[in-house]
């Protein structure tokens, strides 16, 4: 399929992605017109609808934005952009008020104030939540309902975006497919501003907590169009995915550990107290690697909630309870088997404080963006927040920057389609070689797999995935230290001064080419 079947144009913004970041941006843009395009149904779409813990914000009486900022910087392992952290922590309470105005039903205490949960590496309770562990579903549904009621927003689902359209050096639209197989249609969406809100890349890994649509395609599309990418090597693994062989793996939220649940190995021994002063509430990368090492050493790991929660589990954490029940586990009387799983991408399309990417006409928001907030390791419950804070900022900036006057000439050339190579080959390589513990040999081997896949098919969706995977892997190979979410067994030290990674796909290609040309590979 190489012809454009139809062209849809808007004088406003085109937003790709209907998770919390995309929907919030559209609502903040209103009454300026926007089209929100997504693979799946707004309200149920993306990782947003699956978020359990909630949103971090200094809204408690004894909290301050400075404390929230300090905790974020503490978790970020030396790579946070302080100015970005401070603006996010300062603006957080106002964005929570926005959600309340939109109708988000946050849990409240008897006196009517917001009930606040505590999560790992936060110095005090500051997570607003809904029905215990249902924040993502409730907030996504609320924003989708408001978007449906807003005349200026057009919501379109069931589209698979595959390529950015560029005209005279400016991003002016997106090519997307509707339908499958021979009946698929190719549509060019054109707009005066394009916003990517495409989420993360957890599903590039075989073991993930993310929905399978989180395949880094937005990141790949932007990278293939030449965008600057930041910190791609930093992938966060959630320590406690429920290990019952499901793809994706259901999550046992961190809030359970906040409530006192403990990690034990197959011998019933707690092991986190010996590793970190905060034990089970240590930063995520430390907990995840400790669990990984237990498992590699032959010890299964369990989250034991019996003493901390007992029979109140079902009421406080209904989502996790349902996932346990579906797997035949009663968490009130049995420990939950857990394992780390790819969960969150700290890196992404490099963005400034307005959400602008390096490509004219393209803004980015939410997990697909790298603003500098998370550094090398995200503080729990800061990601939905980032989508809200930058959703507001992108909306403001797009309004001020909208290109005026006639914009469109002849449409750009459409992408060419081919049969995709199987993504499971890529997913296995990423889980084996680019996960919690990395080394040069494994990373080179993953780059080999990626290069082979790229030569087997020119399918744009696959090329978006391989581009995203290549950026993660090449940046991991180039970083000769361990920091935050990036751990090299051959470079276990952390350098004194941390520097962020900024690279293009061409830079990643150059790193991969060095690997192919190395004498060790030639002898293989
Ligand atoms: C199980 C789980 C629990 C979590 N819990 C929390 C939490 O408690 N607190 C917190 O802050 N964060 C949490 N996170 C992380 C957080 O949910 C995500 O970072 C956040 O929801 C990302 O929002 P987003 O709007 O950027 O992307 P998403 O919500 O992932 O939305 C991406 C959108 O892009 C669309 N899309 C992507 N690619 C394409 C394409 N090629 N074509 C068409 N459409 C496309 C998708 O259909 C979707 O609409 C959790 C994540 C998971 C997986």
Q: How would you portray this structure in words?
A:
- The longest helix has 21 residues, at 82-102.
- The radius of gyration is 22 Å and the shape is globular.
- It has helices at 20-29, 65-75, 82-102, 135-149, 217-224, 255-258, 284-296, 313-316, 318-326, 383-401, 423-433, 440-456, 460-478, 505-517, 519-522, and strands at 6-9, 13-16, 34-37, 55-56, 116-117, 127-128, 153-156, 159-167, 170-178, 185-190, 193-196, 229-230, 235-242, 262-265, 301-304, 336-345, 348-350, 362-364, 369-370, 502-503.
- The protein has a five-stranded parallel beta sheet with strand order 7-3-2-11-18. It has a four-stranded mixed beta sheet with strand order 1-10-9-8.
- Helix content is 34%, strand content 17%.
- The protein is of the alpha/beta class and 524 residues long.
- The protein contains 15 helices and 20 strands.
- Helix 1 (20-29) packs parallel to helix 4 (135-149) and helix 12 runs antiparallel to helix 13 (460-478).
- The site of flavin-adenine dinucleotide (FAD) has 44 residues, from helix 1, helix 4, strand 8, helix 5 and helix 10.
């Amino acid at each position: 399929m190489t012809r454009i079947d139809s062209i849809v144009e808007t004088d406003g913004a085109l937003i790709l992605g209907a998770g919390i970041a995309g929907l919030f941006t559209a609502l903040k843009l209103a009454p300026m017109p926007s089209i929100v395009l997504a693979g799946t149904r707004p309200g149920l779409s993306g990782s947003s609808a699956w978020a359990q813990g909630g949103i971090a914000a200094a809204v408690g009486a004894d909290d301050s934005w400075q404390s929230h900022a300090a905790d974020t910087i503490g978790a970020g392992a030396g790579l946070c952009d302080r100015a970005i952290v401070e603006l996010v922590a300062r603006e957080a309470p106002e964005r929570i008020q926005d959600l309340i105005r939109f109708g988000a039903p946050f849990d409240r205490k008897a006196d009517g104030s917001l009930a606040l949960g505590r999560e790992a590496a936060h110095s005090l309770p500051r997570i607003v939540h809904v029905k215990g562990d249902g924040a993502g579903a409730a907030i996504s549904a609320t924003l989708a309902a408001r978007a449906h009621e807003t005349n200026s927003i057009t919501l379109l689902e069931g589209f698979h975006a595959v390529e950015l359209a560029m005209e005279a050096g400016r991003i002016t639209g997106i090519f997307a497919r509707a339908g499958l197989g021979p009946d698929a249609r190719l549509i060019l969406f054109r707009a005066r501003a394009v916003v990517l809100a495409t989420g993360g890349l957890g599903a590039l890994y075989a073991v993930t907590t993310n929905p399978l649509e989180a395949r880094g395609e937005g990141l790949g599309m932007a990278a293939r169009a030449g965008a600057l990418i930041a910190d791609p090597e930093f992938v966060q693994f959630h320590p406690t995915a429920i290990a019952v062989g499901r793809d994706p793996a259901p999550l046992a939220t961190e809030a359970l550990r906040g409530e006192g649940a403990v990690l034990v190995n197959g011998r019933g021994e707690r092991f986190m107290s010996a590793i970190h002063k905060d034990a089970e509430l240590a930063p995520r990368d430390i907990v995840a690697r400790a669990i990984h090492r237990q498992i590699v050493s032959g010890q299964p790991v369990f989250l034991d909630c019996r003493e901390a929660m007992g029979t109140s589990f079902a009421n406080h954490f209904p989502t996790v309870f349902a996932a346990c029940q579906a797997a035949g586990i009663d968490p009130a009387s049995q420990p939950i088997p857990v394992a780390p799983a790819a969960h969150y991408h700290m890196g992404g399309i490099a963005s400034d404080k307005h959400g602008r990417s390096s490509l004219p006409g393209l803004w980015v928001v939410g997990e697909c963006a790298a603003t500098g907030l998370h550094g090398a390791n995200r503080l729990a419950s800061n990601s939905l927040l980032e989508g809200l804070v930058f959703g507001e900022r992108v909306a403001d900036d797009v309004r001020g920057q909208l290109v005026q006057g006639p914009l469109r000439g002849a449409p750009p050339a459409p992408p060419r389609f081919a049969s995709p190579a199987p993504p499971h080959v890529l997913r296995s390589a990423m889980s084996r070689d680019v996960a919690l513990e990395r080394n040069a040999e494994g990373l080179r081997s993953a780059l080999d797999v990626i290069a082979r896949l790229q030569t087997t098919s020119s399918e744009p969706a696959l090329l978006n995935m391989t581009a995203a995977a290549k950026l993660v892997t090449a940046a991991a190979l180039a970083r000769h230290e361990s920091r935050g979410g990036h751990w090299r067994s051959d470079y276990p030290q952390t350098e004194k001064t941390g520097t962020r990674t900024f690279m293009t796909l061409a830079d990643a290609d150059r790193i991969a080419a060095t690997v192919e040309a190395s004498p060790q590979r030639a002898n293989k």
